[in-house]
Amino acid sequence: MITFILFIIHIILLAALIYIWTLIIRLIINPHFRECPPFIPSFGKQKKFILARMKDEIEKKGGNISILDPGCGIATLLISLAKKYPDCNFVGIEWRKITAKIAQLRTHNLKNVKIVCQDFFDYPFNDFQIIVCFLMQPIMQELGEKIKNECQSGTIVISNTFYFPQIKPDELIKINGLYKFNDVYIYKF
Ligand SMILES: C[S@@+](CC[C@H](N)C(=O)[O-])C[C@H]1O[C@@H](n2cnc3c(N)ncnc32)[C@H](O)[C@@H]1O
Description:
Elements: H1 2-29, H2 31-34, H3 44-60, E1 66-70, H4 76-84, E2 89-93, H5 97-107, E3 113-116, E4 130-133, H6 140-150, E5 156-160, E6 171-174, E7 183-188
Parallel strand pairs: 1-2, 1-4, 2-3, 4-5
Antiparallel strand pairs: 5-7, 6-7
This protein binds S-adenosylmethionine.
């Protein structure tokens, strides 16, 4: 029995080591990964605001549209959105395998959610009418360029906390909260 437990502990430690090495190698070879946002799901007043605001934006676009969360984490925001707006289709992209797996497990019974495990900079954005994101400042400029180049005109972006430095937002919503994540930026491309 003790041998078996030791064997399992060794396997877990080996898996952890392989995971850490993979992270280190990605940090060295992938510049996007170096600026990788920390894993924090949307929460609090910002999440509440985004959920409510989506109603207007979806209605303006006639309902039944495709919505993207690039960097969906464990799909916290996507799950709330998909339940509230069952007629829309949601895609979440998450490059961390374990995080994406958790997102897939959490959304497996939601028919209107698809989770893709890859770098969102390599995924085409042209099919989405609304993009909702909560990322990190260093990657926002490049994300803004990608959206400008790939999305149809009229695409709406709702960004929690972080802004496109090269584009003036159509609306800046100040949300009084206890945290440093206090603004929501809305852009019409
Ligand atoms: C702050 S979390 C946001 C979670 C979710 N959008 C929400 O609002 O609850 C950001 C996530 O983006 C992921 N991410 C960052 N850069 C990415 C990239 N280039 N491709 C795919 N996922 C990325 C991170 O791994 C992290 O899980």
